[in-house]
Amino acid sequence: MTQASPETAPSPSTVNPVDDRPLVYVNGQLVPRSQAAINVFDHGLLYGDGVFEGIRVYRGRIFKLQQHMDRLYRSAAAIRLDLEKHVPRDKMIAIQRRCVEANELTDGYIRLVVTRGVGTLGLHPFKCPTPGIICIADQISLYPPELYKTGMRVVVANRPRIPIANLDPRVKSLNYLNNVLAKIEAIDLDCLEVIMLNNVGRVAECSGDNIFIVKDGAIVTPPTDEGILEGITRRFVLDTVAPGLGIPAEEKRLVLDDVLGADEVFLTGSAAEIIAVTQIDQHIDGEVTSSHRISDGEGPITEKLRKRFREIVTSDMVPED
Fold first, then answer.
1. CA atoms within a 13 Å half-sphere pointing along the CA-CB vector of 117
2. d(C-alpha 30, C-alpha 25), whole Å
3. pLDDT value, residue 174
4. How confident is the model at residue 141, as a pLDDT?
5. How many C-beta atoms surround the C-beta of residue 320 within 10 A?
6. Which residues make Cβ contacts (< 8 Å) with residue 119, sequence separation at least 6?
7. Which contiguous run of DSSP H or E holds residue 232?
8. In this structure, are residues 43 and 51 in contact, taking their beta carbons and an 8 Å threshold?
9. Which stretches of 79-176 are DSSP H helices?
10. Is 108 strand, coil or helix?
11. Which residues pair with 214 in a beta bridge?
12. Per-block average pLDDT, block size 10, for the chain (321 residues)?
């Protein structure tokens, strides 16, 4: 599988039917979505062997681009994939900017996928000489808009988060089956998200979002060594948004009772941004055994954080650091 630089990819005008958006970057070529395909021997498909990033675009700027690249290359190194050798960081950034421009995207979402590449049917990762690179730039709407005011109901998963010793969740790998199976628990109970506990029973994160509680005017979220993804939006809330509003913020180990006893609960994520949780259910085999009401809608601290976040990402100073 050869890699072409983004500068040599075909011009959108030569490959794009008007009804076949988005154009997708696949291993050196920018093609219509109907032509975007990977080799069936790609280890990303065969084994979930690879890493990815989900990144927001606001006002044509790629939000926290450098932090996303830090995490991508760190995740690749963690699975013994020398990404810098094949696709230097500046080329990876150029690929994303090309996709945003080609799809005339002002506000949207980038899914950047790095697979181990084409190899054999065996597990041996080092028989895959060249990583696969896929970049999709498109629109996304994770949750209905009305939930950002009314808040959302979630359920506590019976399936625990995968232990760090097995596969560190800080590695944003293509192996998301643990999250998917937990998400199914939520879907079966007509929920859109699920709270996952770690293997010792403490609160970790959700299937696709980080979790925060609000207690006595301060916000608290589990530390990353509890078996969670180091969320970019999570870090932005901790380091920038909350301090800018004078809201105390800390990382602390949490048990489920801490969450149930919180004044407010909210989730953060690149796609989700900031969204309130107003009800938490628990279940056994798909039957709800308890329901706990946190609040009747988005709480005041969550509202302040969400509105300030939106002010920043709709301004002329969307941070790409």
1. 19
2. 4
3. 97
4. 85
5. 14
6. 41, 42, 43, 125, 127, 128, 129
7. helix 232-236
8. no
9. 83-86, 89-102, 147-150
10. strand
11. 219, 264
12. 43 52 96 96 98 98 98 98 97 98 97 98 96 97 92 97 95 96 97 97 98 98 97 98 98 98 98 98 95 97 98 97 96
Q: Is 172 a catalytic residue?
A: yes
pLDDT for res 142: 85
* Domains of the chain as residue ranges with CATH: 6-138 (3.30.470.10), 147-313 (3.20.10.10)
User: Which candidate in 127, 149, 172, 252 is catalytic?
Assistant: 172
3-state secondary structure 8-74: HCCCHHHHCCCCCCCEEEECCEEEEHHHCCCCCCEHHHHHCCEEEEEEEEECCEECCHHHHHHHHHH
> Which helix H or strand E contains 220, and what residues bound it?
strand 218-221
State the pTM of this model: 0.92
For residue 200, the 8-state DSSP code is T
Give the pLDDT confidence score for residue 18 in this predicted structure.
Answer: 52
Contacts of 118 (CB under 8 A, 6+ apart): 1, 39, 41, 42, 43, 128, 130, 132
* 28's tokens: 């050196």
Classify the phi-psi angles of 114: left when phi > 0, otherwise alpha if psi is within -120 to 50, otherwise beta.
Answer: beta
* Helix, strand or coil, per DSSP, at residue 85: helix
